[in-house]
Structures are given as structure tokens and as C-alpha cells.
Amino acid sequence: MEDGLDLYEEEYDPQYPTVCFDEKPIALVADVAPSQAVIPGVPARTDYEYQRNGTCNAFFFVEPQAGWRHVQVTRQRTKREYAHCMQWLVDEAYPDAEYIRVVQDNLSTHTPAALYETFAPSEARRILRRLEFHCTPKHGSWLNMAEIEIGIFSRGCLSRRVGDETTLLRRFQALEAERNAQHLPITWCFTSQDARIKLSRLYPIKQT
Q: pLDDT tens across 38-56, in order?
């Protein structure tokens, strides 16, 4: 836990960006009957009946200090999709950085082995040389600042039904562009010292 918290306290350095990475499964649900738009004195109305169109996944990349975020929508969230996300992060998002510190959950797909299962050994190693992983502890996904951005995008893009990937991606891209244009950072205030006080039950040896 303190590994990630100490990382958040470091001063911003574009050569060593800290990027929070997370994912969210999304159910695609379409209206069966057309919704009725708002008219004076009458709220919008949506029929209770809906149609399920399967599921998809959204990968979130968030650099909290720079106020940058990006969302990729995929059909699945296997090791292969994860590996391609890490390749994109290195080659397209941060081609000039020395290396990228990636904060992520400790999922079975979030491993260096995923890259070796997807790419040739030389390519997997090339990507991994530019990544430094910092995993949140079990039951500690709230320590990943990508969770904050996922909440914002969920309220802004998923408050209404979305029935297909194209519509979902269009909503995500619009909000992503709006927030990136404003360079909206995330200010993290919870430190390792705070953890030792507020979460003292997690420490085997108490402070004296």
C-alpha cells in the first residue's frame, strides 16, 4: 500500500510519468421503444423494457498529475488485450518517456507474462523495459486513482442506456476530449502517514 502512496507524493516528472490503469466491464443495453424527450412540464421518459446486446470492456489510462486520461473499448479483457494496452502506452502515449510507472490492480491478467504470451520474446522484453509496475493490495483497489475517473465516466456516459460499442465509444471520446482539454488533474491527499494512523489495524507492529 505504501509503495503506491509514496509514488503519488513524488513531484511530477514527464520523463517518469505515473499512469493509473484499470478496466470496467460494461453491459450493452438498448431501448426497445423510443424514449420520449423532455418537454415543458414533462420529464424525459424511458420504457422499462430493454434489449441486451452483450457486453464489452473499457480500459482506462489516467495520468493524474498531468490531467490526462484515455479510454479504450474492447470486446474482451484477456491477457492479449492487456498486453496491447501496455504496448500502446509505451509506443504511442509516452514514446519519449524514460519509463512509465503503472499503478494497477493485482489481477491475473495484469502480469509481465501476458506480454510474452502475446508477443515475440524480444518485443515483450522491449515493452517491459519501459514499464515499472506498482500493484494495489488485495481489497485496496480504491488506492488506484483510475477508479475516480471510472466513476466520473460512468456518471457522464452510462447514466443512460447504451446499446452498442459505437455509441459507447462516441460518448467516452467526447468526455475524454472535454476533460483533457481542461487538463483536469486528480489531487490525492491520502499519504502513507495517514495510512499508519487511519488504517493502523493493518500494521502488525504498532507505532510507538
A: 678 777 767 667 788 999 9
* Residue 39 domain flag: no
Helix (H) / strand (E) containing 79: helix 79-88
Residues 6+ apart with CB under 8 A from 162: 26, 28, 29, 30, 168, 171
| Torsion 185-144-192-128 (CA) sign | negative
CATH number for the domain that contains residue 134: 3.30.420.10
- Residue 108: Cβ-neighbour burial (10 angstroms; 0-12, 13-18, 19+): exposed
* Confidence (pLDDT) at 201: 83
Based on the number of CB atoms within 10 Å of its own CB, is 143 exposed (0-12), middle (13-18) or buried (19 or more)?
Answer: buried
What is the average pLDDT value for the chain, to the nearest integer?
Answer: 91
Residue 74, strand partner residues: 57
| The three cell numbers locating residue 80 | 492479449
Question: Is pLDDT larger for residue 184 or for residue 49?
Answer: 184
- Of residues 168 and 192, the one with the higher pLDDT is 168
Q: How many domains does the chain have?
A: 1
Query: Does 37 map to a domain?
Result: no
When comparing pLDDT for 80 and 4, which is higher? Answer: 80
Establish if 208 belongs to a structural domain: no
Q: Which three cell numbers stand for residue 113?
A: 507474462
